[in-house]
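Forgive a beginner's question, but would it be possible to get any protein sequence you like and the tokens describing how it folds?
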Amino acid sequence: MCGVAEREDSVVRSVLGWYETNARDLPWRRPDATPWGILVSEVMLQQTPVARVVGPWTAWMDRWPTPAALAAEPSGAAVAAWGRLGYPRRALRLHMAAVAIAERHDGDVPRTYDELLALPGVGDYTAAAVASFAFGARHTVVDTNVRRVLARVAAGIADQPPSVASRRLAESYVPVAAEAPRWAVASMELGALVCTARSPSCGSCPIADLCAWRAAGCPTLAVPVRAAQSWHGTDRQCRGALLAAVREAAGPVPRQTLLSGWPELDQADRCLSGLVCEGLLHGGETISL
């Protein structure tokens, strides 16, 4: 057991040292970042690359620097400001979380994992990340990058899905409280920049000599990764086009005008009905945010 603990400690120390000189300068990581700014960043970064988030995050924080500022506006304003980040339900969830923070917590983002988890639209990962990055709490913060890094360095496999086993593995690497938040962001950064899914840069990896996957010859996954679905013509593309049309109109749009802008009328009608049902759009014969 001592050997395992020492190896885990070496991994942590090496990754922390690498992060000190290789971390990206991102606005939500700076010392002046607020808990609200960190919460906004974590929601925006879900399934969205960092490069696409920096601009929208900056504009969002300029407009709504506090939860109370967002809560004072209608949810449609949040959806409109979300722009082309994708998965616009996240904008609604952020608005609902802002309202809850304003009503339940006097406008201050709550500090504890349990209080964060109780906010609308906040799950385990986001609650742990905000409690860790905003308030310095010790939590196991696991995203797809962390799972991949630990699958390779510890288990000798190319990747691992979310599971009880992957969670326990991640828990075993979390260092003492003072270093836990730094480890969480550093291990994510390593997975995002070096230990990537398709083209890892093992030559520049700070834990290459400790990596079981590299020692095993970098075996591929037994089950190939499923190819990404084509986006063209999908309901997701249609929904995005409908939202964009309403957002760009800056006012109510006749329903038939929206439907006629998409080549498949039945698909457009179904997607538009879904957007209205979900609260992303509003109206009947005329549609607005």
User: Anything to note?
Assistant: The chain is about 55% helix and 0% strand. The chain has a mean pLDDT of 92. Residues 57 and 282 are 25 Å apart (CA to CA). The first strand starts at residue 253 and ends at 254.
